[in-house]
Design a protein that fits this description.
Oligomer: single chain
Largest sheet: 7 strands, mixed
Bound molecules: flavin-adenine dinucleotide
Number of strands: 22
Distance between the termini: 57 Å
Length: about 625
């Protein structure tokens, strides 16, 4: 049935699998996407939302490189919010509520329209390895499909075990069977594996809720969007979310189920995402709090199903139901689906190279939750990187690696393969040491030229990016070179309680002050005239404002990044024998031998490797 040898076989069509298949195929690799259920491509297993703090930046980066997640998020959004707008621009993070069903459908249609991509629905039960190189996959029905590279993106499905109270059953996600076979084969090949867990809240019937008892949470008044491409448009109408709270009564009711909770009676021992705790965890850990927020989020434009964000639980379903009925607005709630927890296998990501290729089997790549991460965005970005590198490997081209100062995606991959993770890894802005450089507004400047070079971002995108850059640079130059009289600027400064000036000066001097914004500067007729004459849109205005106001911070981070890049340039030879460096600490020797960093800079980020160990390495490398 499969007589051809594919360049790339992608196993699994979640967020990682979708991006992996799209990038490999768009780069000209003959690609097969094989997944357990073709109806569930790009399924959102948990919350119907994309983006958020640090995750929104990742979606913008995927989009800038030519991936699909941003476009699909825009096309299926029902609400848009720019989070953290009151903080500095490094923290601004776009987030959308999504129409869950349309999101999945949009992924399927987008992939169907991608050239070089074949589809097949089946469970992959094993891999074919010949001479430590990947040669294909085996399906549960006994088919062998041959491929030059394979990307595994099995998500939460590997030996997935679902828990609701004291009931347990196999599954990769509610309503879908678990994936068996692959873990055992990989362990037999020498891979280390571990278990993690995650959970999800109940979904309810919106017709049974009393929204008048909740607080409305509308989207932004002027919604923006994820994709830099002009092919998507900002929302012109949006759906509201609502906010309500738990109460001591709700907590008491939940506590009645604690003895049947798999979290507390020892049934689940694996670690879950620390920053997405279940409601029972929150009650336990923050016993002094008498209420917790619950965001009531619609699952789409037309459906009556709602997602109860903040009420993730694996307590028995009767307890979930009774407790939720105590929440304001939920007195008559009807359930669509109960909440549950799931345990699954993952593979510690220190077993991977920066390309996401495994160190043990050439041509075998891992991406997404299988690497111990959590979240659609984290998964999608790894899928994109694995798909790109699988295609490049087959095409015998240099690998594509993003540095920590180039992208959150670079931080994510470097953290995973250098430090590993023992609990589900999610991205935070605090993980990025150069977050002033890695903003959501400039991902296109950082990455679209690279995406274009790879053959992923179109020429139109590159041109749009170049025009935006040219216009914002020229606008910054306008502020730097144009003067404003004190008669004109002083009323603006006075309104903002900023010190007045006594003579005419370049506009940038006032604009650089902390409390003076672009809106203030637009009160100067010459500025408004410039904007109109040059047809500057919101993105250009935002970009110019950030360039002016954060110039100092940006320059400082660039300087630090340049210093780091010098260490990045000091390569460590393959299979370097650390045992001969007796002045290294025992722990450093052990960790360096295991992780095999490729540069001194990567070595410096391994926990347990001290500055002293780095000095030893530098001396040895002749620096
Ligand atoms: C119950 C639950 C709760 C979650 N809660 C959160 C949360 O609170 N916060 C958060 O950020 N993330 C949460 N997640 C995680 C989020 O869903 C994942 O991070 C994300 O979906 C991972 O994407 P992925 O592409 O790696 O895998 P998935 O989206 O899981 O996709 C895996 C794909 O692989 C296919 N597949 C698996 N095995 C095989 C096989 N052997 N052969 C063929 N196809 C196969 C599946 O059919 C599926 O299409 C939760 C997930 C679940 C299930």
């Amino acid at each position: 049935m499969f007589d051809k040898i594919y360049d790339v076989i992608v196993v699994g069509a979640g967020h990682a699998g979708g991006e992996a298949a799209a990038s490999a195929a768009n780069m000209g690799a003959s690609t097969l996407l094989i997944t357990m259920n073709l109806q569930n491509i790009g399924q959102m297993s948990c919350n119907p939302a994309m983006g958020g703090i640090a995750k929104g930046q990742i979606v913008r980066e995927i989009d800038a490189l030519g991936g699909y997640s941003g476009i699909i998020s825009d096309d299926t959004a029902i609400q848009f919010k720019m989070l953290n707008k009151s903080k500095g621009p490094a923290m601004w993070s776009p987030r959308v509520q999504s129409d869950r069903m349309r999101f999945s459908e949009a992924w399927r249609l987008k992939l169907e329209r991608t050239p070089n991509l074949d589809f097949y629905q089946e469970m992959v039960a094993g891999i074919v390895v010949e001479d430590s190189k990947i040669a294909g996959v085996k399906t549960s029905l006994g088919l062998t499909v041959r491929g030059k590279s394979v990307v595994l993106t099995n998500g939460t499905f590997l030996n997935g075990l679902i828990h609701i109270g004291d009931k347990q059953f196999g599954g990769g996600r509610a309503g879908e069977r678990a994936s068996t076979g692959i873990t055992k084969e990989l362990v037999d090949l020498g891979f280390e594996t571990g278990r993690m867990k995650t959970g999800t809240p109940p979904r309810v019937d919106g017709r049974s809720l009393d929204f008048s008892k909740m607080i409305v949470q509308p989207g932004d008044v002027n919604p923006e969007k994820f994709s830099y491409s002009s092919s998507t448009k900002p929302l012109t109408k949006q759906r509201d979310c609502h906010l309500t709270y738990t109460s001591p009564q709700v907590h008491d009711m939940l506590k009645e189920g604690f003895d049947r909770s798999p979290m507390f009676n020892g049934t689940i021992e694996s670690l879950g995402p620390r920053y997405c705790p279940s409601i029972e965890d929150k009650i336990n850990r923050f016993a002094d709090k008498d209420r917790h927020q619950l965001f009531v989020e619609p699952e789409g434009w037309d459906t009556v199903e709602y997602y109860i964000n903040g009420f993730s639980t694996s307590l028995p379903e009767d307890i979930q139901f009774k407790a939720l009925r105590e929440v304001a607005g939920f007195e008559n709630v009807k359930f669509f689906r109960p909440g549950y927890a799931i345990e699954y296998d993952y593979f510690p990501p220190t077993q991977l190279k920066h390309t996401l290729e495994t160190k043990l089997v050439a041509g075998l790549f891992f991406a997404g939750q299988i690497n111990g991460t959590t979240g659609y965005e984290e998964a999608a970005s790894q899928g994109l990187m694995a798909g790109i590198n699988a295609a490049l490997l087959v095409q015998e081209k240099d690998p594509f690696i993003l540095k920590r100062n180039e992208a959150y995606i670079g931080v994510l991959v470097d953290d995973l393969i250098t430090k590993g993770t023992e609990e589900p890894y999610r991205m935070f802005t605090s993980r990025a040491e150069y977050r002033t450089l890695l903003r959501q507004d400039n991902a296109d400047f950082r990455l679209t030229p690279k995406g274009f070079e790879l053959g992923l971002a179109s020429e139109d995108r590159l041109r749009e990016m170049e025009i935006k850059q040219k216009k914002s640079d020229a606008f910054v130059n306008f502020f730097t070179t144009t003067s404003v009289s004190h008669e004109v600027i002083n009323p603006i400064l006075e309104a903002k309680k900023s010190a007045l000036v006594s003579q005419s000066d370049k506009m940038i001097r006032s604009f650089s002050r902390p409390n003076i914004t672009m809106d203030d500067m637009r009160k100067i007729a010459a500025v408004e005239e410039y904007i109109n004459a040059n047809e500057l849109d919101t993105e250009v205005l935002q970009q110019a404002e950030i360039q002016v106001k954060y110039a100092g911070y940006i320059a400082k981070e660039k300087n630090n990044a340049d210093k780091l890049n010098r260490l990045e340039g000091i390569k460590i030879p393959d299979n370097f024998d650390y045992s001969k460096l007796k002045s290294l600490s025992f722990e450093a020797r052990e960790k360096l031998t295991k992780i095999k960093p490729v540069t001194v800079s990567q070595a410096s980020r391994i926990s347990g490797v001290s500055p002293n160990d780095i000095s030893v390495l530098l001396v040895y490398m002749g620096r």
